[in-house]
Please model this.
Amino acid sequence: MRIIFLKTVVKSFLCAAFFAVASSASAATEGTDYVTLEKSIPNADKTLIKVFSYDCPFCYRYDKKVTGAVVQKLEGVVKFEPFPLETKAKYAQQAARIFAVLILKDNAAGTSLIDDKSLFKKAKMAYYEAYHDKKERWDGGENDFLKTGLDAAGMSRADYDAAVKDPRVEELFQRWKAGYDVAKIQGIPAYVVNGKYLIYTKNIRSEDGLVALIKELAAK
Model:
């Protein structure tokens, strides 16, 4: 009887130790999986921010294969917020403003920014494809650049010129400036949770692992 009791105690201890180790192994590690930003992005609780640029090949790859799938699995956990980097590409500021106009229209229509019907997504993917696949550089200038995005979104230049005057466009543009300091840390794409925790993309091993990490950081 004593032997059976001891075996049960030892078995229980080993099981407890195993689950403790497993739990510890699955926990996010600061400095390896993520870093806490010295300056947090304001008003970003329960958000997943992605800092990106249309001329970034890695941003394009993530948006084709990863971002949408991950955001779908985080519904109800975090709100997705794209932060176009307005300091990198030649037409970065023009891109940021057209994206702001289209995001506001998507929000008004209740369209998710990862939905194929999203005007923002249509324009963003059009710019990615034009720049990376077709090697377009819009030598004709700003008007040619804007035309690519507006045509993809099905918006006229006159409607855009009116919509871009909305004060909320400038508010978004100013908010996105915080992406510059984030991008300096490890480049882009850059994923930030709750405006505080920058994920080290080099250590992402799987889609499900990224989802689990974002959930853990969102709960901090």
